[in-house]
Write a structure and sequence with these properties.
Shape: globular
Largest sheet: 2 strands, antiparallel
Radius of gyration: 16 Å
Number of helices: 7
Strand content: 5-15%
Structural class: mainly alpha
């Protein structure tokens, strides 16, 4: 398994890079950082420019890679040349992605409870942390999520229908 995050501090370093390079153009609706991959559900801001955004992603990933390579005494790429990005143009699929992203630590066996994984937006949505990376209000509005945390928790605790995921991933 190729790792992206070797130490806890690497997750925080990655999130700082996200703030710097991606937040100027997109709102983050959900995220999950895993030891060997990550997921983001993003929504473009009005000033979004795809060319600029693509360049910012390239700079962000190469900047993070340089830091990890220096830390680990390694060289070479850390990420695939073409990271996957999918356009989600239907809100029901966006809701499935939101659900999938937050259940990812359970799906991969890193935890038994969604709120235990520190490096996902789940804790923010459940009111266990007051993170500022995600635009929670926008996510609640766009995805028609329950604002009641107990109802949202009940939704996130449900198993994911694998048939819905085949259309997206």
């Amino acid at each position: 398994m190729k790792l992206f995050f070797y130490q806890t501090s690497n997750y925080y370093y990655f999130l700082r890079k996200i703030r710097k390079y991606l937040l100027p153009q997109v709102d983050i609706l959900a995220y999950c950082l895993m030891p060997n991959h990550f997921h983001f559900l993003i929504y473009p801001k009005k000033k979004f420019k795809s060319v600029t955004f693509s360049e910012n992603i390239r700079i962000f990933l190469s900047s993070y890679t340089r830091g990890i390579n220096k830390q680990e005494g390694r060289s070479g790429s850390l990420f695939r040349q073409n990271s996957k990005a999918k356009l989600v143009d239907e809100m029901k699929y966006a809701l499935t992605c939101f659900h999938y992203i937050h259940r990812n630590p359970i799906s991969h066996g890193f935890t038994n409870s969604i709120e235990e994984w520190k490096f996902a937006s789940t804790r923010d949505y459940l009111g266990l942390r007051n993170g500022t990376l995600c635009n929670r209000e926008l996510a609640l509005e766009l995805l028609k999520l329950p604002s009641n945390r107990k109802l949202l928790r009940k939704f996130l605790d449900q198993e994911i229908d694998p048939n819905k995921l085949k259309k997206i991933f």
